[in-house]
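Q: I'm building a small set of examples for a reading group on sequence design. Run inverse folding on the following structure and report the sequence directly after it, with nothing in between.
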């Protein structure tokens, strides 16, 4: 799949940021819309563009809250496919209409206070708990 490199980039940022799982109950402002540059301006980051293609634009960002990936999509379907694939790598995702921000829990919470959106949490690969997870048998190659 063409987006594999982008997903690996999301996984790398997640690893650098120390992504983990948690719940979110805070209220948020109305969900922001706009270009990658306008969303970045809202959260006071200068985007470091990584991908600038018709279907996805993706940048690394850093602001006072931390590091994160900011991506915009040409279609809702493209966005959903990217998120669904990326969530296998864990992490926290702030999702708006045709955009997503990926970072650790605290960064996503802070971004949500400005951009609105819905928080989605990827797979937990932290390894604590020691129990077997049903539905994970495909990862063992039997």
């Amino acid at each position: 799949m063409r987006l594999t490199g982008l997903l690996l980039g999301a996984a790398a940022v997640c690893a650098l940021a120390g992504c983990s799982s948690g719940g979110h109950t805070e209220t948020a402002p109305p969900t922001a819309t706009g270009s990658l540059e306008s969303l970045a301006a809202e959260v006071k980051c200068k985007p470091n563009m990584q991908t600038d293609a018709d279907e996805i634009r993706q940048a690394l960002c850093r602001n006072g809250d931390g590091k994160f990936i900011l991506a915009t999509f040409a279609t809702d379907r493209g966005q959903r496919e990217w998120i669904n694939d990326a969530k296998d790598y864990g992490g926290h995702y702030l999702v708006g209409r045709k955009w997503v921000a990926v970072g650790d829990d605290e960064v996503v919470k802070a971004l949500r206070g400005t951009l609105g959106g819905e928080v989605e949490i990827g797979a937990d690969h932290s390894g604590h708990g020691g129990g077997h997870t049903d539905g994970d048998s495909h990862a063992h190659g039997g």
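The first helix runs from residue 4 to 17.
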